[in-house]
Design a protein that fits this description.
The chain has 98 residues and is mainly alpha-helical. The chain contains three helices and two strands; from the N terminus they run H-H-H-E-E.
Length: 98
């Protein structure tokens, strides 16, 4: 029962932090950290508390979390308009980048 409670707590904390990060690098870092923590807990629980299971689980979780975090992005704001300026000082609309 203690393992289930720990796993539930780690998962809840990870989901709470999943939205952290404005830029792609920040999301990759937070995803990697969340994945490493969750992977270490799951790897340790699956291997019967051995450190090697926690290390392997943490490494796989960090890699997976970094990939997922880097490839997600916040939804664009539909009303936001971005402008660029040409060499004559004239403004024109451009796609917004985040």
């Amino acid at each position: 029962m203690n393992k289930i409670a720990t796993l539930t707590l780690v998962t809840a904390m990870g989901l709470g932090l999943a939205a952290c990060g404005e830029t792609r690098n920040e999301r990759a870092l937070s995803g990697g950290l969340i994945g490493a923590g969750a992977g270490a807990v799951v790897g340790s629980a699956v291997s019967g508390g051995r450190a090697s299971g926690a290390l392997v689980g943490g490494a796989l979780g960090a890699a997976g979390g970094a990939v997922v975090g880097a490839n997600t992005r916040p939804e664009r704001r539909s009303r936001e308009v971005c402008y660029g300026t040409n060499r004559y000082g004239e403004r024109y609309r451009v796609p917004c980048r985040y």
